[in-house]
Amino acid sequence: MTDSKPIRVLLADDHAIVRKGIRALLTQAGGMEVVGESSDGEQAVALTEQVRPDVVLMDLQMPGTDGIEVTRRIVEHQLGGRVLVLTSFASDDKVFPAIKVGALGYLLKDSDSQDLVQAIHQVYRGEPSLHPTIARKLLQELSHPAACPLTPDPLSGRELEVLSLMA
After folding, report:
1. Is 36 in contact with 53 (CB distance < 8 Å)?
2. Which tens digit of pLDDT belongs to each residue from 133-151?
3. CATH number of the domain that residue 89 is part of
């Protein structure tokens, strides 16, 4: 990162130990500052609006409002921060909706710590960042679409084109 200003990160995950571990990792990596932590969806929306982070590290499975809805609200209402999903779920019913509502990155929790740091930097710069498993899913969907839509709102032609470019 050429800028001397640290990347401001908000952590949204319902597991305190995960937040603590990520905070320690980001502190050790340098160039990043954790500006808030949220354990549920509503709190994540409120904190994002309040602290205006550069990147929101979003778990999808949280009490109350889930990460997909929180991501949609952050993006739709321009609350600040680009969303990088960090989750254990690689199923189509999580991946496609999260990307469709505006997540710029999608990383699985089994990723290496360096991959997480790199993904945060990419998303901060406005570049997409996808775990290889997720990239394969997107490419598979683009090359062999399912017979029936995987979500209630299937991707439009333009959305598929953008996903193809991201992958």
Report:
1. yes
2. 777 777 777 777 666 556 6
3. 3.40.50.2300
